[in-house]
Design brief:
Blueprint (H helix, E strand, L loop, with lengths): L1 E10 L4 E10 L2 E6 L9 E3 L4 E4 L1 E6 L1 E2 L2 E2 L5 H12 L3 E8 L4 H16 L7 E2 L2 E4 L24 H5 L4 E6 L7 H9 L3 E4 L6 H10 L3 E2 L15 H8 L4 E5 L7 H11 L4 E4 L11 E5 L2 E6 L2 E4 L4 E4 L3 H12 L3 H6 L3 H6 L17 E4 L5 E6 L2 E5 L1
Parallel strand pairs: 1-4, 1-5, 6-9, 9-10, 9-11, 11-12, 12-13, 13-14, 14-15, 15-16
Antiparallel strand pairs: 1-2, 2-3, 5-21, 7-8, 17-18, 18-19, 19-20, 21-22, 22-23
Helix pairs in contact: 5-6, 7-8
This protein binds zinc ion.
The site of zinc ion (ZN) has 6 residues, from loops.
């Protein structure tokens, strides 16, 4: 079946067409440009609207009352449907530092959702394992009692259960080092996070294949002018894709601007790091067996530690635009093509180009989600 999205301002995001159509056939984009929808009967009018690739969130724990650690298909489906209302078309459900059996249950559930696709929601692209091979002193809201080194973890067993796209670890811990090359061999991003690595240890880790960073600045060694730290290395080493949380709470707006300036739209990756309470009323929720409180957009443990976010990708794009003053196409790139590239799926996802999956968001001029299309199917209409 052929369908066309017509008359919108199309941001691919590497090109901007002031008024153009997107032609879709069998879930795939076949043409983008003015006049390509001629003769097509099935149409979605986007006059006065923006047409962009669907958002790709590579670090998200939960939302709408669900958490990836629930270990059920139902939880991943609930997340997928909620994220679609925020313009997300694909995502990496993210696990927590928990007992290996709990992580494995989550990986199995996510894998099941890839084998038998979810209807009416965003698509899981594979798992982001956040821990358990992290630094105890930088655990943040990751439960400390389940931290272990890679030497004490059957990571091959975990990788064999599903499609692991990213693994966040602390590379300064000697026993974790072999996991970096292993992850890269298996096609996963090797991600520094919850880490106290020095600049020198980061240079070494990049030499082993480390290529991505979890929520830059949050729960990593910060910058001192004689100790550039983990954060300094993340910003300066070109190989690294740098995730950042643009909710205005985890990072000062000026620091968001700094991350984007130093990494550029080709290496800065917008994420939400959202948790179960995202999209839910303020109140108490659970994260890895701990009580968390959602209040006015912030999520904290009872001791005040930030514990993920209630951010959505559409709001992140609006915030980054406000915090950086960058062109809209660049802001969208950091929510679409760059995250897709960072996990090796840019041949199918992340931009509006012939041959790619028809994962598309239609936005109002003030960046509110009007409709979301996943693989050519409209899954949400605002
Ligand atoms: Zn996280």
């Amino acid at each position: 079946m052929r369908i066309a999205i017509t008359g919108g301002k199309v941001i691919t995001p590497l090109e901007v067409h002031e008024r153009a159509d997107v032609l879709i056939e069998g879930g795939t984009i076949v043409a983008v440009g003015p006049g390509v929808a001629e003769g097509v009967r099935e149409r979605l009018a986007a006059d006065g609207m923006l047409v962009a690739p669907g958002f790709v969130d590579v670090h998200v724990h939960g939302g709408a009352g669900h958490d990836a650690m629930d270990g059920t298909r139902e939880a991943i489906e609930g997340m997928a449907r909620y994220f679609a209302t925020k313009g997300v078309t694909s995502f990496c459900p993210t696990t927590l530092t928990q007992a290996p059996e709990a992580i494995m249950a989550s990986v199995r559930a996510i894998h099941d959702c890839q084998q038998r696709p979810i209807e009416g929601g965003a698509q899981p692209l594979g798992v982001h394992l956040e821990g358990p091979c992290i630094e105890a002193g930088k655990k943040g809201a990751q439960p400390g009692e389940h931290i272990r080194t890679a030497a004490a973890l059957d990571y091959e067993g975990i990788f064999s259960l599903g499609n692991i796209r990213l693994i966040t670890l602390a590379p300064e811990i000697e026993e974790n080092r072999p996991l970096i090359a292993f992850a890269r061999r298996r096609g996963a991003a090797a991600v520094v996070g919850h880490s106290a690595a020095t600049y020198e240890q980061m240079v070494e880790a990049v030499g082993l294949g480390l290529n991505h960073a979890t929520h830059t600045f949050n729960q990593m060694e910060g910058i001192h002018h004689r100790q550039p730290g983990t954060a300094g290395a993340v910003l300066l080493l070109e190989e690294i894709y740098a995730e950042f949380i643009a909710d205005g709470i985890h990072l000062h707006p000026a620091i968001v601007d700094m991350v984007v300036r130093l990494k550029g739209p080709e290496r800065a990756v917008m994420i939400t790091d959202a948790i179960r309470g995202a999209g839910m009323p303020d109140g108490e929720y659970e994260l890895g067996g701990q009580k968390i409180v959602v209040k006015q957009g912030a999520v904290r443990l009872t001791d005040g530690t930030l514990a993920g976010s209630a951010l959505t990708m559409d709001a992140a794009v609006r915030n980054v635009r406000a915090f950086t003053g960058r062109p809209l196409a660049e802001c969208l790139q950091m929510a679409t093509l760059t995250p897709a590239r960072s996990i090796g799926v840019a041949h199918r996802k992340g931009s509006l180009e012939p041959g790619k999956d028809a994962d598309i968001v239609i936005l109002s001029p003030d960046l509110e989600v009007q409709a979301t299309m996943v693989m050519g199917e409209v899954v949400y209409r605002g």
